[in-house]
Amino acid sequence: MTPATRTRAQALALPGEPESVSAARAFATGCLPAGCPRADDVALVVSELATNAVLHSRSGDDGGTFVVLIDVEPGAVAVAVADAGPALVPGMRPEGEDEHGRGLALVADLADAYEVTTTETGRTAWVRLDWDTTTTGVTS
């Protein structure tokens, strides 16, 4: 999303604790326009990515944090969750295995675009969710 088309971008840093997942979800959905047709998807994506940040990164260590970034533009929302790494990305499990570990597959299925970037100091999972503004009337 380019600065020229961006209508609203907000970020929130949260402690890397399980209780922060619901705060991340509430923050993200609160950034959306009224009537956003992808609100439930945004809530699910943020829940999965925030949970991974808390459970599978150094963000879940004592004093750790993660950041949720929500960037809304007409007909789309970008969701990013940045954590403290490690640089290993939790893997998607094949079907037929236990029910845990399928969150990233679900995120990828919901996303119109999905990317994970890693650096020596952390990882950012980014998702874009689109909607048709001509049929919903919801822009940003």
From TrEMBL:
Domain Histidine kinase/HSP90-like ATPase residues, every copy: 15-128
Matches recorded under CDD domains: HATPase_RsbW-like
Alphabetical keyword list: ATP-binding, Kinase, Nucleotide-binding, Serine/threonine-protein kinase, Transferase
Pfam families reported in the protein's UniProt record: HATPase_c_2
Domain of life: Bacteria
Organism this protein belongs to: Microbispora triticiradicis
Protein name listed in UniProt: ATP-binding protein
Any one GO molecular function term: ATP binding
